[in-house]
Amino acid sequence: MPSIDPSALMGPLWTLLAYVALGWLAARRLAVDPRPVATLLIYLVAPLTFFRGLVLGGPTPAYLLLTLAAFATASLLAISVHRLTRRRFAPQESALLAFSAGTGNTGYFGLPVALVLLPPEGVTLYLFCVLGITLYEFTVGFYLSARGQFSVAESLAKIARLPLVYAFLAALAVSGLGLEVPVAAMEGLAVFPATYTLMGMMIIGMTLGRVSLREVDARFIGACVAVRCLLWPLLALGAVVGLGAIAPLSRELAMAMLLLGVVPMAANVVVVAMELGIAPAKGALAVLVTTLAAPLLIPFYLTLMMRLAGL
């Protein structure tokens, strides 16, 4: 039976947790406010990171179909969870839970793991799936989150101001028209992926640095963990088995899809919650729980899912 070595995941995990610890120290000892950091991530760092990645990735119709499929899956899952939970949780909590349901830590955590577990072709397939989930975060996901605090018109206005969608369209235009981005510009953009990861994980620590015990909500955290650690693995496994029954599925694509299903909760849950002011402390606690469980759950889940999928 194929298996995943847990030690292969410890490097990425400890690096990310060290970033969380730095954020905690920044909030506790330096009184750093995480809200401007969240704004920088959403309006500057994330758009430039994904513009660079898409230009370098060379989008093809097949790759963009993966992006569309990931976007549609994340959106449908988030809308379904929102409808199921809006009468059981407060509006802000329901909105944040719905946002988290459609995404995972596919970038900050998942990408380093993908580089360890997948060949180059698998990493490319994984990245275009991640792009679809990221587009969900800053469109449908952002809208659902904003609806916990704002009206429909206000929520749509906030989405219209998000630059990531325009960065995506700009990258498609550059690739489709065969334009060349100056080498100096691409070299300058090379610093943003690492900055994206560093700031994204630090903001979790900054938020945790302001958390008090009264903000621990076991019911909310349990719901987030159930969606991320139970529903998503089942969904990923079902997709691989179902698609494999219809047409042959490459091992690289199957592994990329399975990895999407087992990463921890997205750090962007905290980023968006901070930007919109919707229970960021509760989101940070839920993200931390799933991140700490990741080195145990990911090898177990992937080994079991690979066996069930016949990989």
UniProtKB/TrEMBL annotation:
Compartment list: Endomembrane system
Organism: Halomonas shengliensis
Principal cellular location given in the protein's record: membrane
Membrane topology: Multi-pass membrane protein
One Gene Ontology cellular component: endomembrane system
Protein name (record): Uncharacterized protein
Top-level taxon of the source organism: Bacteria
Keywords (A to Z) from UniProt: Membrane, Transmembrane, Transmembrane helix, Transport
Segments passing through the bilayer: 6-25, 37-56, 62-84, 96-118, 124-144, 164-184, 190-208, 220-247, 253-273, 285-304
